[in-house]
Amino acid sequence: MINRITGATQFAHNMARQPAAWLSNTRVSAKGVLATAQHTLTIVGVSALIMMAVLFVRPELAKDLSNLLNRTPEAETEPVVVPPLSELMEAPSSAPVANTEPLTAEERALLGTKKQQQWVTSWLSKRYRVAGDAANMLVSTAYLTAREIKLDPLLILAVMAIESGFNPFAESPVGAQGLMQVMSKVHHDKFQDMGGTQAALNPVANIRVGSLILKDYVTRGGSVEAGLKSYVGAGAFEHDDGYGSKVLAEYQRLKMVSAGKKVPITTPVMAAVPAKPAQPLASTEKSISGTQIAGL
């Protein structure tokens, strides 16, 4: 009986001690969790400080990170195929094709050398802020057209410079269009073989038709000055407000450029002055201020 009482007492004593032990173990576990959390927060804080320092030193990384986080799905778009410049500026099918026959002395003079064309192209590209490929296309077209109709290519280019500043889509209030500001409604017949008047903004067609008109006016007027006066529509007036002088001044600059001379691209256009008296047309050569304009 005594043993039973002693055993019961020991059992009750043990049962009383268990909650205290459990509470002690729980306190130890909680301390461990808190210590682990503290260490984790310390590591995260230090890492954040290091990251902030790196982003401060390398701001481009911050920008890349921002773009990455804020990136939105890009909508699928079909690729745009840009046609080559040669296709955009392609002449109508009836436009003149380069002749493969041997060149005469006059044609060689009109076409010049490849180096001369490069000098002219580079100078015009810089002066009028035209893309190099586009300037090369326009200059080549002017030289080929000049060879066909027997007119100085530099005179054609000078007219283009003064008329439109080499803007193929220029249009005046009275309807003059394109590089050489051709009145397509007046000269519609000259565009018939090139697709009609809508071809007036085609650079190649515009250069060809404008050059033919200029050649015709020079021939009928008896001099380059008279031809330019008619070209600008001042044939019935006493003077052309200096138009001819501006064209011939640009022509002289192009002559110097084609000769390899250094000509400033910022040379201002000369002030307008009354046109000079018309000079008689000689057999095949005309002189302007002592210089020859080939093909005239």
Structure description:
With 296 residues, this protein is an all-alpha fold. It is 56% helix and 3% strand. The chain contains ten helices and four strands; from the N terminus they run αααααααββαααββ. The protein has helices spanning 2-57, 59-69, 85-88, 105-111, 114-127, 132-149, 153-164, 203-221, 224-231, 243-258, and strands spanning 176-177, 182-183, 287-288, 291-292. The protein has a two-stranded antiparallel ribbon. Strands 3-4 form a two-stranded antiparallel sheet. Strand 3 and strand 4 (291-292) form a beta hairpin. Helix 5 crosses helix 6, helix 6 crosses helix 7 and helix 7 (153-164) packs across helix 10 (243-258). It is elongated and about 140 Å long.
Mean pLDDT score: 75
| N-to-C SSE string, H for helix and E for strand | HHHHHHHEEHHHEE
Strand tally: 4
Rounded Rg: 42 Å
Distance between the termini: 149 Å
Please identify the structural class as seen in this structure. mainly alpha
Spatial shape: elongated
Percent in strands: under 5%
* Largest beta-sheet details: 2 strands, antiparallel
Spatial strand arrangement across the major sheet: 1-2
Q: How many separate helices?
A: 10
Which residues form runs of ≥5 with pLDDT under 50?
87-98, 270-291
* Secondary structure: helix percent: 55-70%
SSE blueprint:
Layout: H1 2-57, H2 59-69, H3 85-88, H4 105-111, H5 114-127, H6 132-149, H7 153-164, E1 176-177, E2 182-183, H8 203-221, H9 224-231, H10 243-258, E3 287-288, E4 291-292
Antiparallel strand pairs: 1-2, 3-4
Helix pairs in contact: 1-2, 4-6, 5-6, 6-7, 6-8, 7-10, 8-9, 9-10
